[in-house]
Amino acid sequence: MLYKSLFKPLLFRKDAESAHEFTVRLSSLTSRSQLLSSMAGMMYGTKFPKLEQKLFGLTFPNPVGLAAGFDKNGETPVAMQALGFGFVEIGSITARPSSGNPKPRAFRLPEDRSLINRMGLNNQGAEVVVDRLNKLKLNIPMGVNIAKTNDPSIHGDAALQDYLFSYELANGVADYITVNISCPNTGEGKTFEDPEALSSLLEALEPNKSGRVPTLVKFSVDTDQATLASLVDICEDHGISGYVATNTSSNRTGLKTSETRLSEIGNGGLSGRAIAEQSTRIVSWLSDILKGSKPIIGVGGIDSPEAAIQKIEAGASLIQIYSGMVYEGPGLIKKINKALSKRA
Ligand SMILES: Cc1cc2nc3c(=O)[nH]c(=O)nc-3n(C[C@H](O)[C@H](O)[C@H](O)COP(=O)(O)O)c2cc1C
Q: What's the pTM?
């Protein structure tokens, strides 16, 4: 209520990135203040014992997680825990710090309850972020999402070493690591969704090596069924523990937003309600391939309990939200958990 009547009108007066920066600053302040965290907890946090699950050897108090991209620098996990999230995913982080693509690079599509972004993997770099995360005390699982530094001059073996640098650093602090092979917003596109490239990447990372935390792979919503099957085959050969489906889309079909507005906005990854159906389809394809052998995190357009249930019925054990929070606010977390708890 407070979000929709007070914060949302204020935030929607700002451009999408400034609104996001403001929200991160407020959440970061909440993370650092015991008083603000307790207040957030009183307003939004509730326990849902029926929803607790053990997956990849980790205990998730509820299945609703914060998707990667909201907190790229690890500044808000304590606030997110207070708001009722059952887990958080920090990042994407990259080996080298990056300021990302030129602004403007984040846009709202209110008629579609969606967003388009081409942030371009802006983050403070793996060392700074991991150092910050090392100082945290959290009671919920924390994933770290890694990607290749957004610099097309880093390719071939250097690209693998770049990923490996972040992977090894993150391994010291994360409960699980997500390998983001599906960012549509880099100079070179999503190179690592090519089966050969993925194979070399996972050979370099060695997720099977002893001492590694559970490692997940995140797919694009634009992946076709045959490619998905071959990518999963490769992941299974290299000891991947689970899958995140999905990242954003480069597709623009079926949107209510006008062509003029879309061409003004230009390139970027579409997220939110507009990708919900296709992302659920990818979760079902994954579920058909895996037959319950590995957990799936369903993400893409979850902005209501019904949308969350669709991902779970398609085969997801956990879900994540980003765009839904922009349109619905943090009350969405409890709303989904309440509905899931009634169903359990
Ligand atoms: C502004 C923005 C930045 C994002 N940055 C990342 C990122 O750095 N790494 C990543 O794996 N996903 C990133 N994502 C994708 C989300 O994690 C999620 O997969 C996608 O937005 C679909 O979920 P949603 O419809 O709930 O937003 C980003 C999404 C948005 C909107």
A: 0.98
